[in-house]
Amino acid sequence: MGDIKGFLKVKREKAQYRPVCERVKDYSEVSLLRKADKSMEQASRCMDCGTPFCHWACPVANYIPEWNDYIFRGQWQKAVDLLQASNNFPEITGRICPAICEFACVLGINDDPVTVREDELDIIEHAFKAGYIKPRPPKKRTGKKVAVIGSGPSGLACADELNKLGHKVVVFERDDKVGGILRYGIPDFKLDKKIIDRRLVILEKEGIKFTVNTDVGTDLPVSKLLKEFDAICLSGGSRRPRDLQVEGRYLKGIYFAMEYLTQANKRISGKKFSQQELIDAGGKKVVVIGGGDTGSDCVGTAHRQGASCVVQIELLPKPPECRSCDQPWPKYPLIFKVSSSHEEGGQRQWAISTKKFIGENEEVKKLSCVRVEFSKDAKGAPVIKEIPGTEFELEADLVLFALGFLHPEKKGLLENLAVELDPRGNVKTGLDYSTSVKKVFSCGDMRRGQSLVVWAISEGRQAAFHIDKFLSK
Prior knowledge:
- By secondary structure, this protein is α/β, with parallel strands linked by helices.
- It folds into three domains: 6-130, Orthogonal Bundle (Fumarate Reductase Iron-sulfur Protein, Chain B, domain 2); 145-239 and 407-471, FAD/NAD(P)-binding domain, CATH 3.50.50; 243-403, FAD/NAD(P)-binding domain (3-Layer(bba) Sandwich).
- It contains 19 helices and 16 strands.
- The chain has a five-stranded parallel β-sheet with strand order 3-2-1-4-16, sandwiched between helices. The protein has a five-stranded parallel β-sheet with strand order 6-14-7-8-9. Strands 10, 11, 12 and 13 form a four-stranded antiparallel β-sheet that branches.
- A hairpin with a 5-residue loop joins strand 11 and strand 12.
- The radius of gyration is 23 Å and the shape is globular.
């Protein structure tokens, strides 16, 4: 490394955000980009540690120590070339990845880890500003055609890799715009959609064709694609939400988180909705059920829509502030986190079970809840037990389920293809990402189950590798 004692001289600086009083009034990104000199200083903390566990932990195997060294030396062109060698969309992961790599940082054993995610974002944004990121169409075409169904991070990564290898790629998306969960599942205050569009312009100029408003299996027979294309990749994501079937579930004012976030994103982009269709938190008492990132996104969106109050509840107990003994370094630990949305207000409660919804005039007005405690049975399996006398009610005009997803939607595409599914309901593949149907592959959440954006990118890259091998036979 450029300064082998940098980690002894420089302390970690947290990511900077716009003031809460300012950012809750708009949907612009909350995070602020660092100046180049600060990036170089923070990059100097990366150790010459011999075995870079950050690289081991990263799903796309980023060359983190190497490009941190390039940042420190001010060699931005080399840094971005190395970064893009393993990551198709660092401008996205640099904004929304939970930075698994940082929890595996060797420096993090007894100090604060390196700011890997911010370093990654600084590289790619510097590269765009300097004009390093330009369309580079393949010099030769193979004559092979591949259909990628689904334009989320896995589908886009797969398409990008296959196009670079010279194959002709067409991406099919059922929504009106490309991006999948990146566009409609993540709020603009975390990922401005201009960032996605900036990359899509490059991909189109490199030769990838995007076909929107096309639900393959419904609008377009999949049999037609099987005839026209040499290979097909299913990357439609895991979109079947987990429900909460308790008394009062079908009262008005109860929605899945993705229904709410998708509409909010579309409204920001200019789409209008009728009063009957509108899901708006303005002036309402909002309860978000589910303590993960999607729940946090609902909290931040509700703040911006002018909710009178926001409460986020979670069935699981509050995570510890630091690593527990059963989650040692370099594992990714389950610890207490405060997102930018949580900083903006609202309440958070843990170990809460929702028993029923109470309504008036067919509209939700309250949640009947009880506190729970966790123990383990003789086999070590978790057991949830209600605590007597802890029953209480939460007022609510709007309830949002952020309980995760079960598996991909089966109606249409998967049913028509008749691909084999695994016990969880995901598309079953071999180690080569191939499905039970000849020349059909799958990647991302549709194959793996609900996961992180960085895992989706990794899946897309791996699928492209195996599809290219199949096409080269």
